[in-house]
Amino acid sequence: MIELTDKQIAEFFHRSYTSVDGLWFMKVEEKYGFDVALDIDNEVWRVMPKIQARKLKSFANLDKGMEALFECLTTKLALEGFVFKTEKMPADNGFRIIISDCPWHNLLIKAKREAVSEQIGTLICQTEYEVWASEFGDDIEFVRTTQICKGDDSCILQFRQ
Q1: What percentage of the chain reaches a pLDDT higher than 90?
Q2: What's the confidence (pLDDT) of residue 35?
Q3: Which of 9, 43, 116, 120 is in the most buried spot, having the most CB atoms within 10 Å?
Q4: All residues at 6 or more sequence positions from 38 whose CB lies less than 8 Å from its CB, including other chains
């Protein structure tokens, strides 16, 4: 058996996770077409954020609320390789995440699928981050103002109560 470092193990699982996401999408698309693949992908991303949020909450012994959402979501983004900064929005009891580099968009470019990145990112990111917000409180609203996959310099994700 190969002895691997914790970093190598993490890289192995990260690569497997991102690869399987793209592979199953392409296989569904080959068989049923892009629209069906996108619809099924959207259904997957109605569930995946619940799994991720609940696991991170349990790791950190967190429950609901803006601070818990902030801690868990920024952890998730860092683990997935996003480059971002955050800003607190005290007037809205919220925060903003400014993403300057998106690994999912980068994977689509690398796969020469940039032409569908906007469609995928517009739908899937909206679904994903709405679900993240709902996992931390029914009164938390998600608003996205810019998107890298639409040619903007960054994706701006806002969460407020």
Answers
A1: 93
A2: 97
A3: 120
A4: 119, 120, 123, 124
Domain ranges for the chain, please list them.
Answer: 45-160
Cβ pair 148, 99 in contact under 8 A:
yes
Residue 102's alpha-carbon distances to 33, 59, 82, 121, in angstroms, are 25, 25, 5, 10
pLDDT higher than threshold 90 for residue 92: no
Alpha-carbon span 56 to 53, nearest angstrom? 5
Cα(99)–Cα(157) distance, rounded to whole angstroms?
8
Provide the pLDDT for residue 91.
Answer: 84
Residue in the structure block whose two tokens are 């696991």: 55
**Burial degree of 122 (CB within 10 A; 0-12, 13-18, 19+):** middle
Residue bearing tokens 């940039």:
114
How many angstroms separate the CA atoms of 85 and 78, rounded? 10
User: Is the pTM for the entire model greater than 0.90?
Assistant: yes
Going by C-beta distance under 8 Å and a sequence separation of 6 or more, which residues neighbour residue 97?
73, 74, 77, 84, 85, 86, 156, 157, 158, 159
- Is residue 89 within 8 A of residue 156, CB to CB? The reply is no
- For 104-158, write each residue's pLDDT tens digit: 999 999 999 999 999 999 999 999 999 999 999 999 999 999 999 999 999 999 9
